[in-house]
Amino acid sequence: MEINRDLNPLHVNEEYAKTTIFGTRIASGLATSLLRRFSELLSWEP
Questions:
Q1: Within-domain flag for 46
Q2: Chain centre distance of CA 13
Q3: Which of 20, 27, 32, 45 has its CA 20 to 30 A from that of 5?
Q4: Which segments within the chain are labelled E, that is strand?
Q5: Coil, strand or helix at 38
Q6: Taking Cα atoms as reference points, which of 35, 34, 16, 36 lies closest to residue 24?
Q7: In the record, which residues are listed under signal peptide (predicted)?
Q8: What pLDDT does residue 44 have?
Q9: Domain membership flag for residue 1
Q10: pLDDT of residue 38
Q11: Within the chain, which residues score under 50 in pLDDT?
C-alpha cells in the first residue's frame, strides 16, 4: 500500500494472498481505519 508503504504480501501480492485463509488480498489496518473514520465523518448530522 503506497500510503503507508505496507509491503506485506497479504496486502499487495494477489498470488500469495490466494494461498492464505482469506483467498484474496486484504486491506491494511490503516486503510480500514481510514475508511471507518471517513464513513463516520460523512454520516455527520447537524
A1: no
A2: 13
A3: 20
A4: none
A5: helix
A6: 16
A7: none
A8: 63
A9: no
A10: 87
A11: none
C-alpha cell of residue 46: 447537524
**Does the residue 27 lie in any domain?**
yes
* Residue positions counted in the chain: 46
Q: Is residue 20 part of a domain?
A: yes
d(C-alpha 39, C-alpha 22), whole Å:
24
C-alpha cell at 16: 500469495
Neighbours of 25 (CB within 10 A): 19
Q: What pLDDT score does 7 carry? A: 87
Q: Which residues constitute the domain of residue 24?
A: 9-41
**Total domains, the chain:** 1
Amino acid 45: pLDDT: 59
What is residue 9's predicted lDDT score, i.e. its pLDDT? 92
